[in-house]
Structure formats: structure tokens, C-alpha cells
Design brief:
- By secondary structure, this protein is mainly beta.
- It contains two helices and seven strands.
- A three-stranded antiparallel sheet has the order 5-4-6, with no helix packed on it. It has a two-stranded antiparallel ribbon with strand order 1-2. A two-stranded antiparallel ribbon has the order 3-7.
Length: 96
Amino acid sequence: MTTTTALTFGGLEWIPKFVDSINKDTCLGCGRCFKVCGQKVLALMGVNEDGDFVDEDEDDDDIERQVMTIANKDNCIGCEACARICPKNCYVHAPA
């Protein structure tokens, strides 16, 4: 299997690492990663007290907290800005 490789403007080799998963147990739902992602990869979702995702259409009373999720994985460009801004190191990235 080959790995996607690119070159920086200065000609240095760069291997983009794309978002693979987010640890919902450690995510604060602070939204910092959402703000730095210009590709609309991420979205906040509600989680109930059992740690299960709550559908948007359900009652807001079931939502214990919100966590970040990967909404559009195919939009990720591999910049890892989300991981660098995350205060809880919730992100796992992998090369393509």
C-alpha cells in the first residue's frame, strides 16, 4: 500500500494525516477544533448520560453534554489543525 505524499511550498516532503477518530469520552465539546477546520469536517452532537449519541430530533432534556464528531470525513485535507488546537488530545489521525 502506498502513502499519499505531498511537497510543501519549500519543497520538503509532507505526509498528510487525515482525521480517523475522536475520543468522545475525553472531548469537552469546546468547539476549538470546529473553529479552526475550514473544511466543514466536524460537527457537535449531543450525548446522553450513558454516553450514547442523541438524535437531533429527540428532546433536548436527554442531552447530558455535547462532543465533537466527524461529520464529513471525505472533506479532511490532512492538516491536523484540529489535533493541534485540542486541549484534551482527542484526535487520532492516519495517513491515507
